[in-house]
Specification:
seven-stranded mixed beta sheet, 40% helix, alpha+beta, 342 residues, 12 strands
């Protein structure tokens, strides 16, 4: 039997129902859990909603979550994997009349974590929008009482428009809550737009690793600093070790239009990805790439390209080989990889 879509008035019990489930989830995920939040309409006061408790979780490792599948099943959940959203683990319980849903993301899945929380904060702060959304859901529940896909599709445009505005307003607040730029207790990802005082030392760092004059990096970094924050490129980031206030640069990454190759139609490109040798094999590069890709996805980018002679590392991090490209001013060729950000 299909789910019966019923939209009800806000119920004060929603929060206690969430808290009960929160304890169960924490007990299953243990140290793998980073953050857990009550999201969706049942987390927003004074809004009409389907009586389903939506829970969003961020974790250090999705593979570790998969190993807990049987424990979630024992707790009454169906374990449905990604279920149409790349990089998610989706669980639900309640049968046809669903009562709970869990959405689990990697802690660096910035786009998904941000959009869900921003939507919640925005509706909590805007009564007029809450009322509009309540009315829309009531109307759609009457129109599609047993068709959950049609119901969700019909409100998708409203939700997406609110998400875009909400992200622009609450991005900094949510970044602080999630600590998305923190790799561990001492390593921190820094945008050179936010910390322009690092621009000279960062340009020299990139130059020392890649053999390109520091003046070229500095020019690009200064362009990033001056550009509108929504510009896709150039963008420059470093990883610093904050232990003992040392602030040593131990890694970096950039986003530019073209990384010195002849495929000018493939842009923007990730570039200058480097982690100091004594910090490798700790997941830092993966976290750095995911963080930057999350920023770009929020800005609406669908694909990012990468020129490299490596293969296995990037293939393990959601890049796919696309073609060969001729290196600029050389007779050699390198591989171009692409990563879908949708």
């Amino acid at each position: 039997m299909s789910q019966h879509i019923v939209v009800k008035e806000y119920n004060e019990e929603y929060n206690s129902l969430y808290k009960k489930e929160e304890k169960i989830i924490k007990n299953i995920l243990k140290d793998n859990l980073v953050n857990i939040f009550h999201i969706g309409s049942t987390s927003i006061k004074d809004i009409k909603a389907k009586p389903i408790i939506d829970i969003m979780v961020s974790v250090t490792s999705l593979k570790e979550v998969d190993l807990k599948k049987d424990e979630f099943i024992k707790g009454g959940y169906e374990y449905l994997g990604e279920f149409n959203i790349k990089g998610r683990r989706y669980l639900r319980k309640g049968g046809d009349e669903r009562t709970h849903q869990i959405h689990i993301f990697d802690k660096y899945d910035k786009y998904n974590l941000l959009r869900h929380l921003a939507f919640k904060y925005y509706l909590n702060d805007n009564k007029n929008i809450r009322d509009l959304y309540s009315s829309l859901k009531e109307e759609l529940a009457k129109k599609y009482p047993y068709d959950i896909e049609a119901y969700c599709d019909a409100k998708d445009e409203f939700v997406k428009n609110i998400e875009k505005e909400a992200i622009s307003i609450y991005k900094d607040k949510i970044d602080a809550i999630l600590s998305l730029n923190i790799i561990d207790q001492s390593l921190k990802i820094i945008s050179l737009k936010d910390k322009s005082s690092f621009k000279e030392i960062a340009s020299k760092y990139y130059s020392s690793k890649w053999g390109i004059p520091s003046s070229i990096y500095l020019e690009s970094i200064e362009e990033f600093i001056k550009n509108n924050e929504k510009s896709l490129y150039p963008r420059w980031y470093i990883v610093i070790n904050t232990k003992d206030n040392n602030n040593e640069i131990i890694g970096g990454i950039g986003v530019i239009k073209n990384d010195f190759h002849n495929r000018k139609d493939l842009f923007p490109n990730l570039c200058a990805i480097y982690i100091n040798e004594n910090y490798r094999n700790k997941g830092i590069a993966k976290n750095l790439i995911n963080y930057v890709c999350g920023e770009l996805k929020i800005l609406g980018l669908k694909k990012i390209y990468l020129l490299t002679d490596l293969s296995s590392f990037y293939e393990k991090n959601n890049f796919k080989f696309l073609s060969m490209a001729k290196n600029e001013n050389e007779e050699t060729y390198s591989k171009i990889y692409v990563r879908d950000l949708d």
